[in-house]
Structure to design on (161 residues):
């Protein structure tokens, strides 16, 4: 039997509709290959999780996708719980550090026997800040930072220079 040759018409002789008919199966195969490749990657990434749930079974593509969704939901919930506890501890750490800073500044200013008007104002301010509720202090999670001094208050600010 002699080999037969198929003569394809040159591209310029094909209508756009005929080109699409020729291209469609190739494009569809590429799409299916991408899907299958991604499912296989999921299977490899979550292999331990799959073995835990269904140790000796052949997984269908739908099983792999369902288990992946379930696993991602679990991870998302764990991440939300962890983030919540981290936020609370960081707020606590901030308040503790802020309080410690106030104590250090108060102690430093208290060491000087001669008190200027500025030192007295600062000490008074620090005492008020320490006695205020911790929620009133600025923390990283609060919506607005402490207000800057207005221009009219600029003359009363303590400056070391």
């Amino acid at each position: 039997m002699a080999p037969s040759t198929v003569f394809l018409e040159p591209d310029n002789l094909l209508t756009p509709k005929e080109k699409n008919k020729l291209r469609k199966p190739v494009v569809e195969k590429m799409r299916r290959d991408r899907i299958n490749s991604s499912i296989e990657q999921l299977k490899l990434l979550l292999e331990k999780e799959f073995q835990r749930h269904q140790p000796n079974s052949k997984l269908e593509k739908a099983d792999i996708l369902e288990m992946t969704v379930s696993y991602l939901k679990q991870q998302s919930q764990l991440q939300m719980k962890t983030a919540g506890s981290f936020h609370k501890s960081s707020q606590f750490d901030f308040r503790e550090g802020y309080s410690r800073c106030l104590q250090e500044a108060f102690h430093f200013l208290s060491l000087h026997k001669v008190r200027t008007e500025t030192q007295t104002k600062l000490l008074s301010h620090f005492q008020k800040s320490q006695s205020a509720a911790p929620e009133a202090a600025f923390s990283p999670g609060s919506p607005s930072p402490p207000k800057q001094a207005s221009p009219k208050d600029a003359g009363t600010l303590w400056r070391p220079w």
Residues 133-155 have pLDDT under 50 and may be disordered. DSSP finds four helices and no strands in the chain. The helical segments are 16-45, 47-53, 61-110, 117-131.
